[in-house]
Amino acid sequence: MTSWQDPYIRNEEERARAARVEELAARFAARAEQHDREGTFPFENFADLREAGYLKLTVPREYGGDEVSLYSLLQLQERLAYGDGSTALAVGWHVGQVLHFRTSRKWPEPLFADLCRSVVRDGTMINTFASEAASGSPSRGGRPETTAVRADGGWRITGRKTFSTLAPILDRFIVTAYVPEEDCAAEFLVERTERVSVVETWDTLGMRSTGSHDVVLDGAFAGADQRIRGKGEDDGGGWLLHIPACYIGIARAARDYALEFARSYRPNTLSEPIASLPSVRQTIGEMELELRTARSLLYEAADRWDREESRRPSLRPEFGMAKYVAVNNAIRVVDLSMRIVGGTSLSRRSPLERYYRDVRAGLHNPPMDNVVLQMLADAAIGETRA
Q1: What is the reported pLDDT for 138?
Q2: Which domains does the chain have, with CATH numbers?
């Protein structure tokens, strides 16, 4: 990463943690092209993350974790994505979910404590599998077609989940399922057994190494104590800001690549590198505007989430806006970077080509653009005059 003083690093502890993650990111960057080309899951990256203690970042201190703030988590997610967007987005679901469980307290405490201790001791990871082909994104409110039927000592769960990020490496996960006898949807903690299979369907344009395959449950068992019954405290969805942090990290990598190119490339028609050209300098200025705007909104939103606990639900439109701006600006930054570099940016040997594909995936991560715009419209219309 660039050596300039990041204005969003606030103290020496954050600086030291960021430096350690940058070392991981550099390692992951060296592996990213092959995993992207082959569409393989980077198990070695997750072994490194486990060894570095990254998986326990958001675990409460009482269970042996680091209990970092959302703001601090975004600093690290941004840096990981600088090296490999797929790895950062995938692990972001784990650390983000643990943060969500920590602040919302939606899990029964004994169940959550067991998960946290397993994360710290064994490097266990978690994610929630909710998307389905028929119901689409869970953020749209569709009823799951996966069903949970009461059985001796618990529930039998049958269905198929799509977009199941981290599927190759998880030994337990949460699934949403419809409970016919109660006419409602519920969440269950499921452990991988012979009744759970992964169907390798993930063959996509971008984010090719997240392992977001389909997961098929054929009467998988969840004990009575593994149903997540409480809704917990509404945290406004601020933990989802781990997503835009990744796309800003990708955009920063593209920006730095283009800057280095502009500083060093001198065609034989010029006496200086192309960074001296007014048109190139204007494009660089446009990149900076997009990137700095996105980062300022993102870190402001995270700081407010950390500080204003009682107001988190009312800040939901702010969190959505930060995601909307971050992703769309990141796409613009990558596009401008490719304009500076020119036709060679289309080569599979250029990381810009991968950044271009990866960054577009942000449009399909929650909350989607139209949902954000609807939230902002609702907030504006619902204002009352003093």
Answers
A1: 66
A2: 12-122 (1.10.540.10), 128-228 (2.40.110.10), 238-381 (1.20.140.10)
